[in-house]
Write a structure and sequence with these properties.
alpha/beta; seven-stranded mixed β-sheet; 13 helices; 13 strands; globular
Length: 356
């Protein structure tokens, strides 16, 4: 689908597609967005009687994202995209978890108090949240024609889904007390996830769209951001034994992938991840209070040495020279932070074009 407000949208997509193969057309991918100097469109004002009603209002969500796209300058290789969103534990809600909403996000309530009830934890297309996210996706596809791509919603399958069913601390106990019950449920959850992925992939591609999700990558490839945030609570041996097989199944379902490795306590799994042939790239999120991007150079060098692509997330302008001196440009996806205006953005793009 052409984007009327981005005349070079095809070239931006080509650069992003090249990233997956650790290739560059003329420079690495650079994502920069800044607010437009003058407001183009006012965002809708919520008059909903509760946070829940606001979150579930598909028309409001689509109108809000349309305003966001019109009020933003997309520079470098940035492409406007909007994610239908009901919170990070939405996938678990498809299996019967109830969601609680506030101004900024939602969270789920565990729905599997005892393993004797596991057969009641079942995915259903009659679920209120399944119907809501489908309606929101359709509304954004309609509102975004020629203006923005509609993304996959945020989906957390695998261990993260089961942790929502049980509660993370309880799942830790389950891994010792009844690992086969966990393994059986994990297989069902993964089967369901692959069906859900295909459902939305077919919906988005039927609209002649590129593919995106909560990250800022946009590509014509069949891709996603797999993750296992629960892994920060378990050993590398447990991760390999219990959750690696389902992760590999997921990775084989895509053409390319960008694993979300979240926080220093998850770094113990980096070696395991780098050994997976099906994994394309790593998104390392060091987290607030853990320094800047440039403080983690050894992690990025290790990722490159293993033949994987990487995302430099929230890179600041004064860190560019450092990374250009210490990393290869091939397979690097740059997400800039703190770029104040178009003039600064042009400076960044000219500098990155010299990275050889």
């Amino acid at each position: 689908m052409p984007l009327e407000n981005i005349p070079d949208w095809e070239q931006r997509l080509e650069r992003q597609d090249a990233f997956w193969h650790r290739e560059i057309i003329d420079r690495p991918v650079v994502h920069i967005t800044i607010p437009k100097q003058e407001l183009v469109c006012r965002a809708p004002r919520s008059t909903h009687r509760s946070f829940r009603h606001r979150w579930l209002d598909a028309g409001y969500a689509a109108e809000f994202e349309r305003a966001q796209a019109l009020n933003t300058d997309y520079l470098g290789d940035a492409l406007p995209h909007a994610m239908p969103y009901l919170g990070p534990e939405l996938f678990s809600a498809f299996f019967g978890c109830e969601l609680e909403f506030d101004e900024e996000t939602s969270w789920s309530r565990p729905n599997l108090a005892d393993w004797s009830q596991v057969n009641e934890v079942r995915f259903s297309t009659d679920d209120v949240y399944w119907k809501a996210i489908t309606e929101i996706t359709d509304a954004m596809l309609q509102a975004g024609q020629g203006l923005f791509y509609t993304s996959f919603t945020d989906l957390h399958p695998g261990a993260d889904a089961i942790a929502a069913f049980r509660d993370p601390m309880q799942l830790n106990l389950d891994l010792s007390d009844d690992p086969e019950a966990v393994r059986s449920l994990l297989e069902y959850v993964t089967d369901t996830y692959l069906w859900v992925y295909d459902f939305f992939y077919e919906k988005l591609t039927a609209a002649r769209q590129a593919i995106s999700t909560w990250g800022n990558q946009v590509s014509t490839r069949r891709w996603f951001i797999p993750q296992c945030d629960f892994s920060c609570m378990i050993s590398s041996a447990m991760f390999r034994d219990m959750f690696l097989p389902s992760l590999v199944r997921e990775l084989r379902h895509y053409e390319v992938s960008l694993y979300h490795l979240d926080g220093p306590t998850a770094l113990r799994h980096l070696d395991t991840l780098l050994e997976i042939p099906e994994l394309t790239a790593i998104q390392w999120v060091y987290g607030a209070g853990n320094g800047r991007c440039s403080d983690w150079l050894p992690v990025y060098q290790k990722i490159q040495a293993a033949g994987k692509g990487l995302e430099l997330r929230h890179l600041e302008m004064d860190e560019l020279d450092f990374f250009m001196e210490n990393l290869r440009p091939e397979g690097v996806w740059i997400g800039m932070a703190g770029v104040p205006d178009r003039e600064a953005a042009q400076y960044v793009l000219k500098k990155v074009a010299q990275w050889r």
